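User: Second chain of the day. Same drill as before.
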Amino acid sequence: MAAMRTGIAVVAAAFLAIATVSHAQAPAPSATPSGPQNVTAILDKGGQYTTFIRLLKTTQQDTQLNSQLNNSFNGNGYTLFAPTDNAFNNLKAGTLNSLTQQQQVSLVQGHILPQFYTMESFQTASNPIRTQASGTDGPFTLNVTTTASNNQMNVSTGVVVVSVNNALSVAKPLAVYTVDKVLLPQELFRAKAPAAAPTASKGDKAKKGEAAAGPAGSDDDVTPAGAAGARAVGWGVAAIAALVGYLL
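Assistant: Same format as last time:
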């Protein structure tokens, strides 16, 4: 009986040893790589950026930004200001449709900074801050000012100013902040100066001068009033003398 118990114990120990070895040799589940964030996935999760997502896709800036994050990460990271759907709804009707395709690209790029910024790092940033957009006069820029407590900042394009106090995602290499206004760049939306009045030509000025001076004439055509009166008196005296001589 004791021998049977000993045999059973040996067999059980053998099975336990085999199971332990098998479990030790089984590959552990691979950890999901964190990797760079996907900008459209972040915005879609936020739930109030439908218009901006559509604009990112139609201009292909979602593909470009994701590619930069995944393949050509510059080491500095990126910051995105994401306008809400209400921000686009508050635009004047037809604003987006009035822009060319390239201008829409510039509008989107004007919301992207080629630098990763936290609320705290914005406080030491030097204005103006360059965006991804550029034009004939150089890069589009923003001015960012922060409060003393670092929990709010104001962003200005020169056309609009918006307060920012909500970070949708801040995880290097990408920071995403919610904005309640579309950041309209002054390069595309600055007020146009009124057209200057047409300048009169030299010929027009000469004609106006002649009209003011009256009809032109020579000095001989102008008879002083005193000389004309004297001649009239002389003719009257001569006529009377002739009449008297005839009667005599």
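The longest strand covers residues 138-146.

User: Great, on to the next one.
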